[in-house]
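Suppose a colleague, Dr. K., hands you the sequence of a protein chain of 406 amino acids and asks what its three-dimensional shape might be. Before reaching for any lab equipment, you can write down a predicted structure in token form. Begin with the sequence itself:
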Amino acid sequence: MELLITLTVEIARKYFLAIFSPFYLLLIVFIGWQYKKMQERQPAAGLAGYRRQYLHATLIATVAGILGGFLGSFLLILFGIDIAGLGLIYLFAIALLLLMIHPRFLCFAYAGGLLSLVSLATGFPRIQVADVMALVAILHMVESLLILFTGHLDPIPVYLRGERGTVGGFNLQKFWPIPLVALMSTGMVPISTGPDSWWPLLKDSIGLYEGVSFSLVPVLAILGYGELTTTAMPVHRSRSSALYLAIFSATLLGLAVLGSYYPSLLFLAALFGPLGHEMVVFIGWQSERRHPPIYVSPPQGVMVLDVVRRSPAEKAGLRSGDIITELNGRAVYGPADLILSYDRLPPWLSLTVLRQGQRLVLSTGMRTYDYLGIIPVPGPDGQAAADVVPNHSGILSSILRRFGKK
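The predicted structure, expressed as tokens, is then:
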């Protein structure tokens, strides 16, 4: 118990240094820039309430990343993952190669699994496969918690054209700057961290870790999450994604720990990394395909896709999914009926809406506003905002497609 307390205090001390390092601040600036770029491509980019939304998203991502990073650091050290035995240079090289094939493959689940399989089959590079797969599992475990608590915040509204016409949806794209503290072997000392050690992974069948000393070192990382949803509200989609990702990470971590005791199971852990992650992605895709879109134009009125922060619509209590049927006593048939004349602004705004089948009347003052502040669901023939949907084609796959056309 005394060792655990001492270790926690030392992790906190190193973690404090990592948070206030200039490299971590640069990481936050980079993520803020990414959020700003995404904001500029969404339908509401020109509305006042959205101009600084990227600052709110960056702040939430930073706070969540710091909390998630501390949990991840504790798990990395608790399980005894030595980053000196991970073959990080090979791991990053494979990850960059997979990025050229397809951006969604920029994930250590694929790079770590491929690197581990090559190492187990050929003996090169000489890495600790159990540590690599446990690292992948812990990072995804942290990611699942971040998705659960913040994945639905500040969703980006999009218009998508598909088989069922143009529908509304949300791009749940997130980036979290993660400061980590990890173990790194530094040299030989007259102590033992062999099979009797309390670290599950800090051992090796050939005695590699016998009598090795370790230090705590800061590590910076970025975790990302991206998903399009048209068939479920952002909060429901992020919860289901977090659940499946948590099951994947817990299973992979269990296989990695078992593989450290029974090396024959390491092949199973290395295979489950990419295949299990593909299963998580496949489940998300199937959910979108099986269910009908919910953000579609109603027979009468206008459905709200999103509400601008600090707008009259938000102050009145309007929510995503509400159907506006009347504005100040006048029937609403389309988005054009929601346009407010600047020189004839009413002092009060009255909205009659349908929310989950119930009729509600919402109202707010309009003296200081000249816009309503909603993003409506597009009509069946509305123009799709294709530029807000990320391009998922990789460099290498684009080259292969060009050669295939010749």
